[in-house]
Amino acid sequence: MAQADAIGFVGSTSLEDHLLPLVGALRRLRDRARADGADLVVIDTGGEVGGIRAQLVVAAIVDLVAPDLVAGLQRGEELEPIMGIVERFFGVATAVAPVHPQVVASSVEQRMEQRRLAMARYFDRPLHRFRVRPTAFLPTLPPLFDLLALDRLLVGLSDGAGGTPGLGYLEHVPADGGLRLISPVAEPPKALRLGSVRLEDDFRIRRVDLRKLFGTE
Fold this sequence. Notes:
Low-confidence stretches: none
CATH architecture of the largest domain: Beta Barrel
Distance between the termini: 41 Å
Largest sheet: 7 strands, mixed
Number of domains: 2
Helix content: 25-40%
């Protein structure tokens, strides 16, 4: 199985409320690709194309990376609003082609199962366990926060220089109320970025609103 040369941690499998970390991770990965001498950089913006959020996501990405071309596959005329924004606001060339008639869209259930299997594969390797200090997180934990609320929460590992060596999840330790990091990455991280999903025992993903979890909403 192919392994990524570098990854960025957004915090969730959904773009909702994660636009800022998305564009930050894209910028860092684009710069990494250029520094490594890539002749061509292709950015897949994801499958969401309808509604305000999709337009804002694409606009933010185009504004950040300044592409030479924005290409899309569409059914009907679903991409016209997005491509219009790209052309009017950024003057970037666009190209659109129809989706092949034999392509079948996956259902919500199928996409959920694909994500579960991907998580299960990622953690189906020798795992390492590290004690975690409550001061190691982004965002910072509120005072007197109950660490049990972070059990099985997905986290991104930080190398202390803006990079993401890999992923992990947190495990609450009942004996002392502390936390452990479970990850296939052997090197202890400098810090951890809290995600907005919790991994069930079978690696199904359950969304978590950090604002509600922290009591800041």
